[in-house]
Amino acid sequence: MTVELTQDQKNLQIAVREWAQAELAPLAYQLDAEAKFPTELYLKMNRDIGVAAIPFKEEHGGLGLGILEMSLAIEELARADQTFALSTMVAVATGLTLQKFGSDMHKEKYLPDIVAGKAVGSIAGTEPQAGSWTAGFTSRATRSGDTWSLSGEKAFITNSGTDITSYNLVGAITSPADAEKTKMSLFLVPDGTEGIEIGKSYDKLGWRSSDTHPIYMDNAKVGNEMIVGNEGDGRYIVHKTYQFARCFLSACALGLSQACLDHSVAYAKDRKAFGKTLGGLQLIQKMIADMAVKTETSRLLARQAAVKADAGTASILELAMAKYYCCETSSEVADLAVQVHGGFGFMNDCPVSRYLRDTRITRIGDGSSQIQTMIIAKELGLDVDFT
Ligand SMILES: Cc1cc2nc3c(=O)[nH]c(=O)nc-3n(C[C@H](O)[C@H](O)[C@H](O)COP(=O)(O)OP(=O)(O)OC[C@H]3O[C@@H](n4cnc5c(N)ncnc54)[C@H](O)[C@@H]3O)c2cc1C
Known about the structure:
The chain has helices at 7-24, 28-34, 39-49, 67-101, 104-109, 111-115, 234-270, 282-311, 316-341, 351-359, 369-379; strands at residues 120-124, 140-144, 147-158, 165-173, 184-190, 196-198, 212-223, 227-228, 272-273, 276-277. The chain is of the alpha+beta class.
């Protein structure tokens, strides 16, 4: 399948690229060093070029475009700073979840600020004792009349404690304690809800300027109207959320691979070695050619997944393949980029060293590479057990 971009899509891509290269890339080193979500920059991006509005319906203030256009924007942001792209992606993904499954009240009260890029939200699934193994989640919500009490702990939740966090979408078990199969519901928990404590920010290897915290819930009370979708449908909704989240994370990885290639080609043309340029050495050429092939293959898989997600025909297999390939190879490409840059590539002020740290987590988060390979094997008819 080939994906030929329309002129409008190319214009959007260029607009985001120009903004990201002018406003974001020059700050990426400092953002990583400060390790704090850059609220002002996020607000500025959305004032300047309205990235957060791209995939939302016009009735909610959006641009009425699709997953493909959002993926193009994320790719360009990630080419400048994957961490910023990731924070944007999570905010938009939470909004898309509300657009698809939320009630009128959720959409009227919480969606406009996400679409306008004035607020962010989080999706809180992972718990300290269980990430990939979602059946191992133990956070629970118990009902009394029209009120639910949430208790438990969530771990590693992106966007949960920024200055502009509006809500956390929290998964909690709502089936009775003696039920044979547990059912999870998804709750919209507004920022500042009593009984919710956002823990201390994690000290991370990469994605340092993304905002990541544990969430502690101690009898936090929310009304029944805060359930997103139907009671008990939390797993189904999160599954559907993966449709666009996997496209977006593929684009995050792809953008970083492209940045590695950009920097490596430029460096190889400039650096002198053995009486010629580094790029004149065949072993360097081989590394750069490998980076280019992996980047372009990632682009094909990521774009195909996004186009099909928009058409509603993306298969579980295609989404898993895109996520798996783009994220695995972005680590390989970043590693090659460090090699091309030699000792300089190991220095913190050389962008490719940050790329290597940043993209490592894409192989773990949002369904790790092992989980993606299990999905791929299952879709190919092999006997795979997820319980
Ligand atoms: C920076 C950061 C941001 C994050 N943001 C969010 C967020 O916003 N929301 C959220 O809910 N979570 C978030 N996470 C959590 C992330 O999704 C989980 O870390 C991920 O799902 C893996 O879960 P785990 O860490 O519990 O590892 P585990 O599930 O314990 O896995 C450990 C290792 O075992 C492998 N493994 C697990 N099961 C199997 C199996 N059956 N067969 C073979 N191998 C297996 C895994 O691939 C992994 O390599 C974030 C994590 C980080 C680090």
